[in-house]
Amino acid sequence: MTMAQNQTVRLTVIQLDSGDSGSPPFGVLAAVKRESIVRQVETTTPWLVSAAGAVVRELAPQDRIDRLLTAVERKLSTVPRCGVTILINRPTGLAFVAVWPWAEGGSQLHPTTQ
After folding, report:
1. pTM, to two decimals
2. What's the mean pLDDT when you consider all of the chain?
3. Which uninterrupted H or E stretch holds 112?
4. Burial of 109 (0-12, 13-18, 19+ CB in 10 A)
């Protein structure tokens, strides 16, 4: 799908538990502790990569920024058919969850706090 100017998306950036190894199951990302959410914004689809990039520049270690920006651009630059995109960067412990409101079951997939 191509990005339309009027499509909104909720971007949630989560700081994963550093003690976990491997990728967390989606259920963990769907119900996270309030203190684990480092950013949550509503933006338009064309600005999604910029919003995620701002978080990368703020929170990622200097030696990881370029690689993570490339991954963010690659993963978040197109709208998936299912309406949900997840990017987990294990070295930084950051998980990016983008949910479009029109996604089937999308309201259930917006990360909420426990």
Report:
1. 0.78
2. 80
3. strand 112-113
4. buried
